[in-house]
Amino acid sequence: MIEKFDKIVSKLANQQTIRAVRRGFIYQMPLIIIGSIILVLLNLPIPAFQDFMLNVLGEDWREIGLSIHKGTLQIMALTTLITVSYAVSKEKDLVKSGEVNSTIVVITALASFIAFINNTNMIISAEHAGSAGMFRALVVAVMACNLFCFFYRCRDRIWPSALFSYNGGALIRASFRAVIPALLTIFIFSAARRMLDFTGSDNARLMFTRIINETWMTGHNYFSALFIILTTHILWFFGVHGGNVIMDAISGATPVATSVTSVADVSILTKEFFDTYVYLGGAGSTLGLLIALMLVRKKSNENRLAKVSVLPGIFNINEIMIYGLPIIFNPYYFVPFLLSPVILSFIAWVSVRIGWVPPVTQAVEWTTPIFLSGYLGTGSVAGIVMQAVNLILSILIYIPFVRLQERHQQHTLITVFKNLANEIQYVQERQQKTILNRDDETGSLARALVAEIKDGFRNHTQILHLEYQPKVNHKGEVIGAEALLRWIHPVYGYVSPLVILNLCDEANITNELGRWVMHRAFSDLQRWHKEGYNTLSLSVNLSPRQLQEDESLVQTVRSYIGWFAIESRYMELELTENAAIDPSDSTRSKLEQIKGLGINLSIDDFGMGHSSLLYICDFYANIVKIDASLVRTITSDRQRQQIVKSILSLCGQLNVKAVAEGVETKEQVEILHELGCQYFQGFYFSRSLDSDKFIEFVNEHGCIQEEAVV
User: Fold this and answer.
1) Which residues are in the PTS EIIC type-3 domain (predicted)?
2) What is the pLDDT, as a whole number, of residue 689?
């Protein structure tokens, strides 16, 4: 049952429009957080705090706060229109291809919204700009984007192609091509407004409120409460401020009784009943969700968001959870968002009816924190107990859905990560660097990964680590190792070094990464030598970009030799032959100086580039590593055998050592040894190992005791 539910909800969550709407709300996060915090400060029910603010900031401090509130939460319809239309437009092929600029789509949606709302005295009223206009803004944002793109695609069939053409600059030409699609889109919303005015449909909300007053507000009837709760939260889920629509009707129909002798003397289902016993943390009992997130998702972004939401949530301000998580348009939270207040209201209503807890008989400010509101509203500790029971129930209701959402999000993140790896391979093949400046999920993930790497450098808690693949002779005796960069991410698992290096290249932290790798690797080599394994050598890959751009490279290598007190002949830097190494005089000078320090230089992937011989001469190499693609088919391809034989012969003539990499079978070892290869590296002998396990491997297979090392 759970699996079936998860499958259905996952499909809904991945629906393009829903995904875009949720992303649009996330774009508003800074304004939502600012507005929520200001709202807490303005309504904080602590006289000492209010007096303090008055004394420190003066009488105008509330006006400052209100102006910030007006510029954040009170224009949410407008910001929603802008961010959602932007997010939706970014999903369109016309925008992805660059044919249409998303800004044009956004301003068309804004113009359509203003044409649609019914204002005669001003361009836009506070009602339409704030939360009351959210649903209209959502509908207009989605429909305007789709209509604009539809008309744009049909432009050649609707009007002559020469019309609104322009032979000037590209930006002006694009603007001319958008004239008719924008005009038709705005016209449709203007016409829709006139139609609604003609039919009188705009009075639907007033009619709905009157029906609630006359039909459902009976005070003691739980079915009226159930209707109110479901209606309120369904409206909330689709972006309509349910409290504005429903709660006004409740407060007008069922006033709080201030003097009662029994439960029968008072209407139970008052607005204060819901605020005190049901809406713990706001609509949807989201204080329970907030705690569930902190309990279940301790290392997630949602957990960090929950921590930010704690202060506003305590005071029943849950805009951060509603719009920032977001709950609205999130299929995973639809059920608990409705179910939690339904169950809590039933438990509280029954408890009041049978006399276990008192009814709420005192009006309490809606921002009063949980437990304090329970006591003030009922004048009894039983009110606090009822709130505690309901809070625990709401947490238990939300937890399974939080787990489902976590599983879905992990699956989504893995998919985005795979897309990122594919995109990096794509841009590498075309020598482009365009990942970090993308504004889609792939770009966001890339920036998040870079931020994690930078945090590791900054805090000296690097999440990257090194593993060491042994280099051996044909008997399996160890001569050294190659340091390999690894990242086992807690969410995405194994992150390819190709992804790491390309992201670092684009983020301009390649030099920092290279220095960290050398420092980490040579510190391990120092430890091995101190433990008695003083003939082991270690090679570290040198990025072409670091070689080209790091002006302090030679000094860094020199400092590591002195710092770690290692004989330089046991240290090796690897250059990849098929990488784009700059053959400039500056690069050659750096390599010559490094070679002068006694450091070995090797060429990785040797035999697959177009200039192998020149690499040996130009880059002062004294070690080559025969490419794995040559080794892989050496047992079946006579031509490749001859190529390898030629490479080995060349190495012998030039006094250059050769290592065959990618060795996976005994047969490959035997053929390579017969051809004259002395050293090997590959899965046949060992995969890459952490430092301690590498030493265990050395103890098991022995170490070559010789002066000349590889």
Assistant:
1) 1-401
2) 94
Specify the residue for token string 């004259």. 676
For residue 173, the one-letter residue type is R
d(CA 81, CA 485): 45
The pLDDT value given to residue 607: 61
d(CA 209, CA 249): 6
Query: Using one digit for the tens of pLDDT, what is the confidence trace for 241-251?
Result: 666 555 544 44
SS (H, E, C) 280-308: CCCHHHHHHHHHHHHHHCCCCHHHHHHHH
Considering only CA atoms, which of 629, 628, 609 is closest in space to residue 619? 609
User: How many Å apart are CA 570 and CA 576, to the nearest integer?
Assistant: 19
> Quick one: which of 246, 256, 257 has its CA closest to 216?
246
**CATH number for the segment(s) 449-701:** 3.20.20.450
For 508-519, b/e burial (b = at least 16 CB within 10 A) is ebbbbbbbbbbb
- Tell me whether residue 632 is exposed, middle or buried, using C-beta atoms within 10 angstroms of its C-beta: 0 to 12, 13 to 18, 19 or more: middle
Dmax over CA atoms of the chain, in Å, equals: 108
- State the DSSP code for 245: I
Q: Residue with structure tokens 């098991």?
A: 700
Listing DSSP states for 76-118 in one string gives: HHHHHHHHHHHHHHHTSHHHHTTSS-HHHHHHHHHHHHHHHS-
Both tokens assigned to 429: 């093949």
Domain boundaries, the chain: 2-204, 206-409, 412-444, 449-701
For helices 102-116 and 179-199, angle between their N-to-C axes, nearest 10 degrees: 20
For residue 264, the model assigns a pLDDT of 45
pLDDT, position 253: 42
In sequence order, the 6+-apart residues with CB closer than 8 A to the CB of 367 are 40, 43, 44, 45, 315, 316, 317
The candidate with the shortest Cα–Cα distance to 324, out of 15, 22, 10, is 22
Beta bridge partners of 538: 481, 571
> What residues in the chain have per-residue pLDDT under 50?
218-219, 248-266, 610-611, 707-709
Q: What is the DSSP string of 406-449?
A: HHHHHHHHHHHHHHHHHHHHHHHHTT---STT--SHHHHHHHHH
- The torsion defined by the Cα of 407, 410, 416 and 419, in degrees rounded to 10, comes to -90
Confidence (pLDDT) at 202: 56
Mention every residue, 6+ apart, whose C-beta is less than 8 A from residue 530: none
DSSP string, 533-583: -TT-EEEEE--HHHHHH-TTHHHHHHHHHHHHT--GGGEEEEEETTS----
| C-alpha triplet 564, 554, 690: angle, nearest 5° | 45
The count of residues in the chain is 710
pLDDT at res. 12: 63
Six-digit token pair at 47? Answer: 């006289």
> What's the rounded Cα separation, in Å, for the pair 44 and 286?
19
Strands (E), 583-678: 600-606, 623-626, 657-661
Residue 703 in contact with residue 533, Cβ under 8 Å?
A: yes
Say if residue 326 is preceded by a cis peptide, omega within 30 of 0: yes
pTM across the whole model: 0.68
For helices 510-530 and 691-701, the axis angle rounded to 10 degrees is: 40
Q: Is 234 helix (H, G, I), strand (E, B) or coil?
A: helix
Q: pLDDT at position 245, please?
A: 55
CA distance 213 to 253: 6
Residue 48 backbone phi and psi in degrees, to 5? -60, -40
Q: Which token pair is 591?
A: 């390599």
